[in-house]
Automatic annotation (TrEMBL):
InterPro entries per record: NAD(P)-bd_dom, NAD(P)-bd_dom_sf
Domain NAD(P)-binding: 9-141
Record's protein name: Uncharacterized conserved protein YbjT, contains NAD(P)-binding and DUF2867 domains
SUPFAM superfamilies for this protein: NAD(P)-binding Rossmann-fold domains (SSF51735)
Pfam families associated with the record: NAD_binding_10 (PF13460)
Domain of life the protein comes from: Bacteria
Length: 223
């Protein structure tokens, strides 16, 4: 069956790599991007819908597909206003899940973060945890929540502290074994590949996937 996929966050690191993989995957004949700015030079199978994602309901008629991939996320440095931060990291993924439910989309995959906990006193973790809970509450048949640790890959913007963190994590990687495996750095391309494999796996429902499990899924024989 030829499929249609929706991507939210295709201009980011993980979303961009996911887009590349879906473009080259012949199972997908239609890829819909919902974003605030256009990406140039994409093939005809990619259709872009430009607008304010904080008002995602404006795209309700166009929000139809077999699968939704949500790679939306910001940082405290880029978005210091906590209200706007929550509107992005909580509001957009939940609004997308609600639209997916309303429009009969059966697969929803979202990138969250390690430490997500709706009861946490840490704003970032609490926001992610509440987002996860309200996504799950939509009861979309196949829902996957990916909780990567630090995400590796080449970003356009320079994040000095994050680069230092990645170097440290790479040094410590061999020591993170057993229960500590979930703290391992995971490459953005690996996350993108795991998302596609989860979307094409049968019997998937309300799955929470940590960094080490993301690595395992990406290495499976599924395409």
């Amino acid at each position: 069956m030829k499929k249609t996929a929706i991507i939210l966050g295709a201009s980011g690191l993980t979303g961009g790599l996911l887009l590349e993989k879906l473009i080259s995957d012949d199972r997908y004949i239609n890829i819909k991007l919902f974003s605030r700015s256009r990406i140039e030079g994409l093939p005809n199978k990619v259709h872009q819908y430009i607008g304010n994602l904080l008002e995602l309901d404006q795209f309700k008629k166009e929000f139809t597909a077999n699968e939704v991939y949500c790679c939306i996320g910001t940082t405290a440095k880029k978005t210091p206003d906590k209200r706007l931060y929550r509107a992005i990291d909580y509001g957009i993924p939940v609004a997308a899940a609600k639209l997916a439910k309303e429009n009969g989309i059966s697969t929803y995959i979202v990138v969250s973060a390690m430490g997500a906990n709706k009861k946490s006193k840490v704003f970032y973790n609490k926001t992610k945890g509440e987002m996860e809970q309200d996504v799950v509450n939509q009861n979309i048949p196949a829902t996957s929540i990916l909780r990567p640790s630090l995400i590796g890959g080449e970003r356009e913007e320079q994040r000095v502290l994050e680069k230092i963190g990645i170097i440290v994590f790479k040094v410590l990687q061999p020591l993170l074994i057993g229960p500590l495996k979930k703290y391992r750095l995971v490459d953005a391309g690996t996350i993108a590949l795991a998302m596609i494999k989860l979307a094409n796996k049968t019997g998937n429902s309300d799955v929470v996937v940590t960094s080490n499990e993301i690595e395992k899924i990406a290495k499976t024989n599924l395409r």
